[in-house]
Amino acid sequence: MDTQQPKQLNILLIGDACEDTYTYGYVNRISPEAPVPVFEPRYTIHQDGMAGNVCKNLEALGCNVNYLHGKTSKKNRLIDERSKQQLLRLDNDYTSDPIRFDSDIPDIYDAVVVSDYNKGTVDYELIETLRDEFAGLIFVDTKKTDLARLNGCYIKINALEKSRAISLPDADKLIVTHGGDGAEWNGWVYAAETAGDVTDVCGAGDTFLAALVYKFLETNHMPDAIKFANRAAAVTVQHVGVYAPRLEEIK
Q1: Distance, CA of 174 to CA of 169 (rounded, Å)
Q2: Which of 43, 95, 140, 210 has a CA positioned 20 to 30 A from the CA of residue 176?
Q3: How far, in Å, CA of 153 to CA of 134, rounded?
Protein backbone atom coordinates (compact mmCIF):
# COMPACT_ATOMS: atom_id res chain seq x y z
CA MET A 1 0.00 0.00 0.00
CA ASP A 2 1.31 3.43 -0.96
CA THR A 3 1.62 5.54 2.20
CA GLN A 4 3.53 8.39 0.58
CA GLN A 5 2.31 11.76 1.81
CA PRO A 6 1.31 14.31 -0.84
CA LYS A 7 3.83 17.04 -1.50
CA GLN A 8 3.20 20.27 0.39
CA LEU A 9 2.61 23.03 -2.15
CA ASN A 10 4.50 26.30 -1.85
CA ILE A 11 2.44 29.30 -2.93
CA LEU A 12 3.38 32.96 -3.34
CA LEU A 13 0.21 34.95 -2.66
CA ILE A 14 0.00 38.67 -3.48
CA GLY A 15 -3.07 40.79 -2.89
CA ASP A 16 -5.14 43.28 -0.96
CA ALA A 17 -5.51 42.82 2.79
CA CYS A 18 -8.64 43.34 4.85
CA GLU A 19 -9.68 42.82 8.44
CA ASP A 20 -13.28 41.62 8.59
CA THR A 21 -15.14 42.32 11.83
CA TYR A 22 -18.49 40.66 12.53
CA THR A 23 -20.47 42.34 15.30
CA TYR A 24 -23.42 40.24 16.43
CA GLY A 25 -26.34 41.74 18.32
CA TYR A 26 -30.07 42.42 18.52
CA VAL A 27 -32.54 44.94 17.15
CA ASN A 28 -35.46 45.22 19.55
CA ARG A 29 -36.68 48.77 18.99
CA ILE A 30 -36.78 51.80 16.71
CA SER A 31 -34.85 54.91 17.68
CA PRO A 32 -36.97 57.77 19.10
CA GLU A 33 -34.66 60.19 17.25
CA ALA A 34 -35.34 58.88 13.73
CA PRO A 35 -37.15 55.94 12.08
CA VAL A 36 -34.07 53.70 12.23
CA PRO A 37 -33.41 50.45 14.13
CA VAL A 38 -31.32 50.50 17.30
CA PHE A 39 -28.59 47.83 17.17
CA GLU A 40 -27.41 46.42 20.51
CA PRO A 41 -24.02 44.67 20.08
CA ARG A 42 -23.39 41.43 21.97
CA TYR A 43 -20.04 40.05 20.75
CA THR A 44 -17.48 40.54 17.96
CA ILE A 45 -15.42 38.19 15.77
CA HIS A 46 -12.35 39.26 13.74
CA GLN A 47 -11.25 37.41 10.60
CA ASP A 48 -8.90 37.98 7.67
CA GLY A 49 -10.69 38.99 4.47
CA MET A 50 -9.80 39.58 0.81
CA ALA A 51 -6.39 38.03 0.02
CA GLY A 52 -6.03 37.14 3.69
CA ASN A 53 -9.02 34.84 3.30
CA VAL A 54 -7.42 33.25 0.22
CA CYS A 55 -4.33 32.67 2.38
CA LYS A 56 -6.43 31.06 5.12
CA ASN A 57 -8.13 28.79 2.57
CA LEU A 58 -4.84 27.70 1.00
CA GLU A 59 -3.39 26.94 4.42
CA ALA A 60 -6.52 24.94 5.35
CA LEU A 61 -5.74 22.74 2.32
CA GLY A 62 -2.20 22.16 3.58
CA CYS A 63 -0.34 24.69 1.43
CA ASN A 64 2.67 26.66 2.62
CA VAL A 65 1.91 30.31 1.77
CA ASN A 66 4.14 33.37 1.54
CA TYR A 67 1.62 36.22 1.67
CA LEU A 68 2.58 39.71 0.46
CA HIS A 69 0.09 42.55 0.85
CA GLY A 70 -0.29 46.30 1.20
CA LYS A 71 -2.29 48.39 3.66
CA THR A 72 -5.09 46.64 5.51
CA SER A 73 -8.64 47.82 4.87
CA LYS A 74 -11.32 47.27 7.50
CA LYS A 75 -14.94 46.16 7.13
CA ASN A 76 -17.35 45.86 10.05
CA ARG A 77 -20.57 43.93 9.49
CA LEU A 78 -23.47 44.28 11.90
CA ILE A 79 -25.34 40.97 12.07
CA ASP A 80 -28.64 40.09 13.71
CA GLU A 81 -27.84 37.26 16.11
CA ARG A 82 -31.23 35.62 15.75
CA SER A 83 -31.46 35.40 11.95
CA LYS A 84 -27.71 35.63 11.17
CA GLN A 85 -28.66 38.23 8.53
CA GLN A 86 -26.33 41.12 7.81
CA LEU A 87 -27.94 44.47 8.66
CA LEU A 88 -25.20 46.94 7.75
CA ARG A 89 -21.56 47.06 6.63
CA LEU A 90 -19.13 49.83 7.59
CA ASP A 91 -16.11 50.13 5.26
CA ASN A 92 -12.77 51.82 5.83
CA ASP A 93 -10.82 51.16 2.64
CA TYR A 94 -7.16 52.09 2.22
CA THR A 95 -5.33 52.45 -1.09
CA SER A 96 -1.88 50.84 -1.24
CA ASP A 97 1.09 51.45 -3.50
CA PRO A 98 1.68 48.60 -5.97
CA ILE A 99 4.08 45.89 -4.85
CA ARG A 100 7.37 45.78 -6.74
CA PHE A 101 10.17 43.19 -6.75
CA ASP A 102 13.80 44.27 -6.45
CA SER A 103 15.11 40.82 -7.38
CA ASP A 104 14.05 37.69 -9.25
CA ILE A 105 11.23 35.60 -7.82
CA PRO A 106 12.78 32.41 -6.39
CA ASP A 107 11.87 29.14 -8.06
CA ILE A 108 10.72 27.55 -4.79
CA TYR A 109 7.06 28.25 -5.55
CA ASP A 110 4.68 25.86 -7.26
CA ALA A 111 2.43 28.77 -8.25
CA VAL A 112 1.84 32.47 -7.80
CA VAL A 113 -1.69 33.52 -6.79
CA VAL A 114 -2.90 37.11 -7.17
CA SER A 115 -6.00 38.25 -5.26
CA ASP A 116 -6.74 41.73 -6.62
CA TYR A 117 -9.59 43.65 -5.03
CA ASN A 118 -8.50 46.89 -6.76
CA LYS A 119 -7.15 48.51 -3.59
CA GLY A 120 -3.81 49.40 -5.18
CA THR A 121 -1.57 46.51 -4.10
CA VAL A 122 -1.74 44.95 -7.57
CA ASP A 123 -1.50 46.78 -10.90
CA TYR A 124 -1.19 45.55 -14.47
CA GLU A 125 2.58 46.02 -14.42
CA LEU A 126 2.97 43.74 -11.40
CA ILE A 127 0.99 40.93 -13.01
CA GLU A 128 2.90 41.38 -16.28
CA THR A 129 6.19 41.22 -14.40
CA LEU A 130 5.12 38.03 -12.65
CA ARG A 131 4.07 36.48 -15.95
CA ASP A 132 7.33 37.43 -17.68
CA GLU A 133 9.72 36.46 -14.87
CA PHE A 134 8.09 33.51 -13.10
CA ALA A 135 8.35 30.18 -14.92
CA GLY A 136 5.50 28.48 -13.06
CA LEU A 137 1.73 28.82 -13.05
CA ILE A 138 0.04 32.11 -12.20
CA PHE A 139 -3.59 32.39 -11.07
CA VAL A 140 -5.25 35.80 -10.96
CA ASP A 141 -8.56 36.79 -9.36
CA THR A 142 -9.06 40.41 -10.36
CA LYS A 143 -11.49 43.26 -10.74
CA LYS A 144 -9.46 44.75 -13.58
CA THR A 145 -11.15 45.03 -16.98
CA ASP A 146 -8.41 44.76 -19.65
CA LEU A 147 -7.91 41.06 -19.17
CA ALA A 148 -6.26 40.39 -22.53
CA ARG A 149 -3.20 42.13 -21.08
CA LEU A 150 -2.91 39.21 -18.68
CA ASN A 151 -2.78 36.45 -21.29
CA GLY A 152 -0.68 33.55 -20.09
CA CYS A 153 -2.18 33.63 -16.58
CA TYR A 154 -5.20 31.69 -15.42
CA ILE A 155 -7.87 34.33 -14.77
CA LYS A 156 -10.74 33.68 -12.37
CA ILE A 157 -13.55 36.27 -12.32
CA ASN A 158 -17.28 36.28 -11.62
CA ALA A 159 -20.09 36.92 -14.09
CA LEU A 160 -20.46 40.59 -13.17
CA GLU A 161 -16.74 41.20 -13.61
CA LYS A 162 -16.87 39.50 -17.00
CA SER A 163 -19.72 41.77 -18.09
CA ARG A 164 -17.58 44.81 -17.24
CA ALA A 165 -14.43 43.57 -19.01
CA ILE A 166 -13.25 45.49 -22.07
CA SER A 167 -11.15 42.54 -23.23
CA LEU A 168 -10.85 38.87 -22.32
CA PRO A 169 -7.93 36.42 -22.21
CA ASP A 170 -7.78 33.16 -24.15
CA ALA A 171 -10.82 30.97 -23.40
CA ASP A 172 -8.75 28.10 -21.97
CA LYS A 173 -7.30 30.48 -19.37
CA LEU A 174 -10.58 32.05 -18.20
CA ILE A 175 -12.73 30.65 -15.39
CA VAL A 176 -16.00 32.50 -14.71
CA THR A 177 -18.02 31.78 -11.58
CA HIS A 178 -21.81 32.12 -11.63
CA GLY A 179 -22.67 31.64 -7.96
CA GLY A 180 -25.43 29.08 -7.58
CA ASP A 181 -25.25 28.31 -11.30
CA GLY A 182 -21.73 26.92 -11.10
CA ALA A 183 -18.66 27.89 -13.09
CA GLU A 184 -17.77 28.21 -16.77
CA TRP A 185 -14.52 27.29 -18.53
CA ASN A 186 -13.60 26.96 -22.19
CA GLY A 187 -17.24 26.62 -23.33
CA TRP A 188 -18.24 24.18 -20.59
CA VAL A 189 -20.43 24.86 -17.56
CA TYR A 190 -19.83 22.93 -14.35
CA ALA A 191 -22.87 22.84 -12.07
CA ALA A 192 -22.61 24.15 -8.53
CA GLU A 193 -22.45 21.60 -5.74
CA THR A 194 -25.28 21.56 -3.20
CA ALA A 195 -24.13 20.65 0.29
CA GLY A 196 -26.84 22.32 2.38
CA ASP A 197 -28.64 25.59 2.94
CA VAL A 198 -26.89 28.77 1.81
CA THR A 199 -26.26 30.91 4.90
CA ASP A 200 -23.72 33.49 3.69
CA VAL A 201 -21.93 33.82 0.33
CA CYS A 202 -19.23 36.08 1.80
CA GLY A 203 -15.78 34.74 0.88
CA ALA A 204 -17.04 32.00 -1.43
CA GLY A 205 -15.01 33.39 -4.34
CA ASP A 206 -11.84 33.28 -2.24
CA THR A 207 -12.52 29.67 -1.31
CA PHE A 208 -13.18 28.80 -4.95
CA LEU A 209 -9.86 30.36 -6.00
CA ALA A 210 -7.81 28.60 -3.34
CA ALA A 211 -9.42 25.23 -4.02
CA LEU A 212 -9.02 25.66 -7.78
CA VAL A 213 -5.30 26.36 -7.40
CA TYR A 214 -4.77 23.46 -5.01
CA LYS A 215 -6.55 20.88 -7.17
CA PHE A 216 -5.11 22.05 -10.49
CA LEU A 217 -1.58 21.84 -9.11
CA GLU A 218 -2.38 18.33 -7.89
CA THR A 219 -4.04 17.03 -11.06
CA ASN A 220 -3.15 19.42 -13.93
CA HIS A 221 -6.79 18.89 -15.00
CA MET A 222 -9.02 21.96 -15.06
CA PRO A 223 -12.43 20.20 -15.04
CA ASP A 224 -11.49 18.30 -11.89
CA ALA A 225 -10.13 21.50 -10.33
CA ILE A 226 -13.37 23.40 -11.04
CA LYS A 227 -15.55 20.61 -9.65
CA PHE A 228 -13.42 20.51 -6.51
CA ALA A 229 -13.61 24.31 -6.19
CA ASN A 230 -17.40 24.19 -6.57
CA ARG A 231 -17.59 21.66 -3.73
CA ALA A 232 -15.35 23.80 -1.54
CA ALA A 233 -17.47 26.90 -2.15
CA ALA A 234 -20.61 24.90 -1.32
CA VAL A 235 -19.14 24.15 2.12
CA THR A 236 -18.18 27.78 2.71
CA VAL A 237 -21.61 29.26 2.03
CA GLN A 238 -23.13 27.16 4.83
CA HIS A 239 -21.23 29.29 7.37
CA VAL A 240 -21.67 32.88 8.51
CA GLY A 241 -18.76 35.05 7.44
CA VAL A 242 -15.63 33.88 5.65
CA TYR A 243 -14.84 30.20 6.20
CA ALA A 244 -11.93 28.04 5.05
CA PRO A 245 -13.01 24.39 4.63
CA ARG A 246 -10.59 21.57 5.37
CA LEU A 247 -9.77 18.94 2.79
CA GLU A 248 -11.88 16.29 4.50
CA GLU A 249 -14.93 18.58 4.47
CA ILE A 250 -14.65 19.08 0.71
CA LYS A 251 -14.12 15.42 -0.07
Answers
A1: 6
A2: 95
A3: 11
Task: Give the count of beta carbons closer than 10 Å to the beta carbon of residue 198.
Answer: 14
For 88-91, the CB contacts below 8 A with 24+ separation are 88/39
| Angle at which helices 204-219 and 222-236 cross, to 10° | 150
CA distances in angstroms from 77 to 80, 89, 215, 245, listed in the order given: 10, 4, 32, 22
Tens of pLDDT, residues 156-204: 999 999 999 999 999 999 999 998 899 999 999 999 877 566 666 777 8
Tell me if 61 sits within 8 A of 214, measured CB to CB: yes
Cβ-based neighbours of 7, under 8 Å, separated by 6 or more: none
Residue 54 sits at the vertex; the CA angle it makes with 79 and 107, to the nearest 5 degrees, is 165
Give 114-155 pLDDT, tens digit per residue: 999 999 999 999 999 999 999 999 999 999 999 999 999 999
Query: Residue 112 forms beta bridges with which residues?
Result: 12, 138
- Please, is 178 exposed, middle or buried when counting C-beta atoms within 10 Å of its C-beta (0-12, 13-18, 19+)? middle
Q: Is 235 exposed, middle or buried (0-12, 13-18, 19+ CB in 10 A)?
A: buried
